[in-house]
Each structure stands twice: as structure tokens, then as C-alpha cells.
Amino acid sequence: xxxxxxxxxxxxxxxxxxxxxxxxxxxxxxxxxxxxxxxxxxxxxxxxxxxxxxxxxxxxxxxxxxxxxxxxxxxxxxxxxxxxxxxxxxxxxxxxxxxxxxxxxxxxxxxxxxxx
Amino acid sequence: xxxxxxxxxxxxxxxxxxxxxxxxxxxxxxxxxxxxxxxxxxxxxxxxxxxxxxxxxxxxxxxxxxxxxxxxxxxxxxxxxxxxxxxxxxxxxxxxxxxxxxxxxxxxxxxxxxx
Lengths: 116, 115
Prior knowledge:
The complex is a heterodimer of chains A (116) and B (115).
Chain A: E1 3-5, E2 10-14, E3 19-21, E4 24-26, E5 32-39, E6 46-52, E7 60-61, E8 64-69, E9 74-79, E10 88-96, E11 105-106, E12 110-115
Parallel strand pairs in A: 2-12
Antiparallel strand pairs in A: 1-4, 3-9, 5-6, 5-10, 7-8, 8-9, 10-11, 10-12
Chain B: E1 5-7, E2 10-13, E3 19-24, E4 31-37, E5 43-50, E6 53-56, E7 65-68, E8 75-79, E9 88-95, E10 105-106, E11 110-114
Parallel strand pairs in B: 2-11
Antiparallel strand pairs in B: 1-3, 3-8, 4-5, 4-9, 5-6, 7-8, 9-10, 9-11
């Protein structure tokens, strides 16, 4: 079984500053994927970034980057140059090999508030 | 290219009624996944279906809940005799296949309220 731990219930950041949202994971499967999603107050789940366990480089997507430290089993999300629209709930998730790649295990989430 | 479509967006049911939630996957996708999000929590996997087959229902409650994905038409999550504890957001995701999976496309969710 897989497990995701997000230890920060809430985070605050000043507009235009960078912020790191923590995520640690646990899995016994050597092949897995790590995902970050944003859930604004409107409720939809917005895919942000993906990191495969065998990827050599950290994933980046625009202002989002994933600080992947495999030995520490951490996959922290870094948002650079925060914007007011980044205020939302952020979820880290993992899937693992086997028969069901789409079966994601989510963490409890971190609420990010961006201050002007 | 339309995304994953869920309807209704909001559903109110009285205790004891049935709730039917629909999910149309992205065009060409034949794998559908249902998740439930209770208030203040992350999403929890419920069931994984391919056309006409249930592949993994390890997250489905044993009673009152069922899911199907017929050859034609959307996937349906059905909750019989709803109770207050069923109030949650239900999300559907779809994928092209199970061999590689680098992005999950979620619908906007159905918010079920049981009164």
C-alpha cells in the first residue's frame, strides 16, 4: 500500500515570493509516480505536475517545480513568484505499479494563502 | 477536446433516496476512476472501471454503493438509500490506458448533499 503525508495544514506566503509545500511518501513498489494537484475554492482538481520514480531530473512546469529526493522519499512542490490566484488547497498523490495506474493515493492537503 | 464531464454538479437527496452520479470520460479514454472527498479531507479511491468491467473496487463501501461503465454511455456511480454520511464531493477521472499514466484528468466533481 502507498501512503502520502503532508504535514503542513496551512501555509502563508507573500505575493511574488516562493513557497515550498512538503510531501513525503511511502511505497514498497520500485516504480511509482508522484502528482501534485491544486483545488481552488470552486472545487475542481487541477493537475499541476508529475514526477516518475525513474526520472533523473526534477520535474518543472512553468512556475511549479518538484524537489524530488528519492532517498528521503520526499516530493516537495515549489511555487515560484506566488500569485494571489495560487491561494488554494494543494494535494500530493502517488500511484504505483501493478494493474491500476490510475489508482491514486492522496495526502490530506495543504491550504496555501497568498497575501498581497 | 472536451474534458471529463460529470453531472450533475450539485445533487441534493433526502435520506433514503437514491443518488446517481454520471461521468463521461475524455474522448478515447476507456478507463474511469471514481474518488470521494469528504469535507476537509483528501480524495479517496473508490473504484476503477473499464468498459463493461469493474477492475478494482477495493475502495467501495460494501453496501449501497455500485458502479458501472457500460459499452455505450457514461459511467454511473449509484448510491442507494443515502445517509447523511454520504454527503461528499465525488470525482471521476479518466485515462487512455493503464500502461503509462502520467496525468490524471479529473472532472469537476458532483457535490452530494443528503438532507
